[in-house]
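Troubleshooting log. The previous run stalled partway through. Resubmitting the same two chains, unchanged.
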Amino acid sequence: MVGFKNRFMLMEVYLDPEKDLLGEGTPVILTKLNLSEAIKDSILVNFGECGLASCLGSFHVAYVNPVTKLCIVRSSRDEHRRVWSAMTLVRSVGNCPVVFNLLDISGCIRACRDAALKCETEKFNQSGKGLSEEEIREMNRKMRTPRTLEVWKLGTVNYLKSLKLQDKLVSERKANRIPDTLLSLQHPPTYTLGKRRTDHNLLIPEAELKSIGAELHYTQRGGDITFHGPHQPILYPILSLRSIGFGARSYVEALERSMIEFSSLYGVKARAGNKCETGVWVGDRKIGAIGVRISSGITCHGLAFNIDPDMKYFEHIVPCGIADKEVTSLRRETDAQLPSEEVIHEQLVTCLAKVFSYDDVVVKEDPSAILNTLEDDD
Amino acid sequence: MALRMWASSTANALKLSSSASKSHLLPAFSISRCFSSVLEGLKYATSHEWVKHDGSVATIGITDHAQDHLGEVVFVELPEEKSAVSKEKNFGAVESVKATSEILSPISGEVIEVNTKLTDSPGLINSSPYEDGWMIKVKPSNPAELETLMGPKEYTKFCEEEDAAH
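Second attempt completed without errors. Output:
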């Protein structure tokens, strides 16, 4: 499944092209960080803030070899020419004058990696050092393996069952038995509370919930009370924060950006919340909610986006503990024709995968079978 | 160019506006790594907690780097006095920006005191992570565990590598 198009560019970096560089002692060591900063700077100078902002979504330095001076840079297909020209115009990395030379472009990182390996082998052979099997294997290992996101499409799932599933997946992820995983689902009408147990924000007695067809659950996630129900897609990313280099705050901000990006597909201008009002808003109305739990660096719970839920359910709570703000939905914010729910879920997943810079998105076959093997809740 | 980047990230961190500052519009840049403080005399865990060992009492909290990456803390859950904590096992949680994060104990032992001020003022963790924001005081059951933790220089390098890798 290719949700979004990328281009991977294999570049060779010539250091100090004026001088003769046959000896040891290169003036700057190339790292992902300094290359990435040099290229971003060049995009900013040559294409302005707007140019930089449009490139930044998919821009990523995937691989750098400071010895052979090869690097693989990823960019979205739409922006790759801009990034390519910016790279050609980079004059220096750190204090060292450089020249970038494009060796290969391809649509997937594997082809690029093969080209890089071939080029590096030739370089080593040329410089008189033969490459042993061991060294080739080592270079293969060094090349960053593409980051894959595994997506489970689960349909409507009872809340407790989803909690059990998440617990199981979190320990699997912690033990590195599974890659970063994303659950895409919906819940039957359910109210949930966060770790702070702010049940004073539930405005009807618990006993009455059954009569309106809803359940109530206490959870360990952050955030206040919220409602989940049909026509409200929910994403639960089970990610290793350390492997994506995020802290709690930057993770939550990325979740917000995913929903903002998704809203823009329908022309809805959403924004992140102000301080202490985490979530996604259209004006003063909340359209997307976030509540996350991080356990040993692995995330669970996640986000919920209102497409067209039954808004009456929100009247029975003070949503997210914020009294004077309304809740809204995509249905209310746009006149555009909304596609099927399946398409909407896929779009939301694609936006999240893009914001988190995943190279590959793999939809897991028949994950509903996994749900049936979870012990029944009695 | 490096100097310009440093200057603009300084300006951004100090919330000054400057005509040369461009990094305010680039959320992908991590600027906080230049400014997290690391104190001498403390030991550090890879999960970003610090330990201050004073004779038979060890004080535990989270580092400046950790509180910066968490955002503003709104709720802290701490264990009871007399409960046991184990090395690298979770003993409590903090909530910030709708995310609850577990805190792992760097050492094993018995909790002898808990910072009750954090219930009313969880923000102390952000404003004073090494002093008023301390979380629990523990009687270590295995002092050798302290040797496995990092010193200030190692921890600073660890943070830099973590931030630079992405």
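Takeaways: Chain A has two domains: 6-143, 148-373. DSSP finds ten helices and 17 strands in chain A.
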